[in-house]
Design goal:
single chain; alpha+beta; FomD barrel-like fold; two-stranded antiparallel ribbon
């Protein structure tokens, strides 16, 4: 990151525990949507079968303070678009000083391939097993609606959503 860039820390929380924490470069923050860029933060390669995340990949991540999801555009190190990984989350919470973004993962995910041919709903079994529906039925309902909304957007809808200023 250049000296002029602003760094924030992304904390992904799941079931009350920090799942991963990593630095990212702040690209934009309009008070509702925050956009950051970060390299693949996990160790090694993660092969989902439909996509591989690996060292060198770059994620442009979009978080909203008023929506129940985050959308991550994934590109290979050479800039080739792999697709979009969408996490169903509670709305992002940004620290008062702007240095940390905390996002609570609600287990549901969606993958949209770069060509838009694959729109895959992921981890619905984990969501069902999480107990959120019993512990917080309103949040569970919001999570399912968020997944439905993302699936309905598909490739073209995601491109439009992310291109809005």
């Amino acid at each position: 990151m250049s000296a002029a860039s602003v760094e924030v820390e992304i904390a992904l929380v799941k079931a009350g525990r920090t799942k991963i924490r990593y630095p990212a470069e702040l690209l934009a923050d309009d008070g509702t949507r925050l956009t950051v860029r970060a390299p693949w933060a996990a160790e090694g390669v993660r092969d989902f079968g439909f996509v591989r995340f690996e060292p060198g990949d770059v994620f442009t991540e979009h978080y909203w303070r008023d929506r129940w999801y985050a959308v991550k555009e994934v590109r290979a190190g050479d800039g080739t678009l792999k697709g979009w990984y969408c996490d169903v989350t509670r709305p992002a919470v940004v620290a008062a000083d702007g240095t940390e973004v905390v996002v609570e993962d609600l287990d549901l995910d969606l993958w949209v391939s770069a060509d838009g041919r694959e729109v895959l709903r992921l981890d619905e079994d984990e969501f069902a097993a999480s107990g959120l529906a019993a512990a917080d039925p309103a949040a569970a309902e919001r999570a399912v609606r968020a997944l439905d909304e993302l699936a309905a957007l598909g490739r073209d809808g995601l491109v439009r959503l992310l291109s809005r200023a």
